[in-house]
Each structure stands twice: as structure tokens, then as C-alpha cells.
Design goal:
Elements (H helix, E strand, L loop, with lengths): L2 H4 L18 H8 L9 E5 L2 E4 L1 H4 L2 H7 L3 E4 L11 H4 L4 E4 L14 H12 L6 E4 L6 H14 L3 H9 L8 H18 L2
Parallel strand pairs: 2-5, 3-4, 3-5
Antiparallel strand pairs: 1-2
Length: 192
Amino acid sequence: MSGEEVLGPSGSPGPGTCMEDVPSLKELEQLLNTGRPSCNHVDEVWPNLFLGDLVTAHNRFVLWKMGVTHVLNAAHGTVYSHGGQDFYGATIDYYGVPAHDLPSFDISQFFFSAAEFIHKALNTPGAKILVHCAVGVSRSASLVLAYLMINHHLPLIEAIKTVKEHRWISPNRGFLKHLRNLDVQLRQKKGC
């Protein structure tokens, strides 16, 4: 669903959509700019769901010690990412999303497939999943936020607050627009 179908000409929800509490991009950016401006290589942001960077993703021993059974790479095929099913072997289920950290990149095309992979992983007894990109703050964070919105019905603001309790994140402005559109789309589907 494109932004024009969901949002009115001013970029805000159209009349009668009962979306008064949908945050503006500026409000989202202000929320993201609160808290500590740094993060670890990896943080558990939801039970058994870890958000991290390439340092963690490329260290199979660390992943083994953490008990990671699934990896979602939001930078698959990019110059920074060397992961893949061949790299992880049979002990880790791998899913690659070839996203570029550019505001013009349409990451929304991967929201539902990534959410499904995360959801299946977390419904596997004893499983733990690492979602990563290069730094673990934009591409991978956007996919984790989409998962929380799609599978746990959190509004975007609540999804951001939930993740930010454990890790500093900073999806680029284009990704925030896609997440905001997803927020509106999911609210409309629920009938507000």
C-alpha cells in the first residue's frame, strides 16, 4: 500500500480515519532522539529476540554461546555482510533481506515476510533469533519494529518505546515513513 493510499495530501491521515493519535514524522524522530545515543553490539529487545550488528552476526562462537538458532540479516548481499546459510551451516536457520540503508529504499516490501520469519522462530521451542544489519540501528530495527506492530499489535510509538528500553535505534527517515504507513494500515485493518 503506498503512502498516497493511506495518508492525505498533507501527509497526515485523511478525514474520518480515526487516526488522530498517529504520530508525525517529527514526533517519531524526537522520540528516537531521546535516551542514550549508543548501543552494544547486541541487545535483547524482546524475549529471545536480539537486535545487533555485523560484529555479532559474524561471530559463530558468540552466537552459539547466546543460543541463537535463527538469523535475519537485513543487509543481505551488501558489501558489509558476508552471512548466509552456507556461513551458518545447519545449526542456524537464515533469512536474508537485501535492504539498503537509504531513505529512498522501500523496506516495507519486507515487513510481512520478515515478521513471519521472526514469529516462526520465536514460536519454535528453545529458539532465539538475531536480527541484524551493519550497525543494528536502522534496517534491522525497522524490521523488528514492524514485527512488533504486525504480530503483537503494538502501535508504532509503543514498538519504538519497547525496543528503546533495551537499545538505541535510529531508522532513517524513509523507513520511518514506511513504518508510519504500516501503523496507519494496521489501525485501519483493526477498524480503530
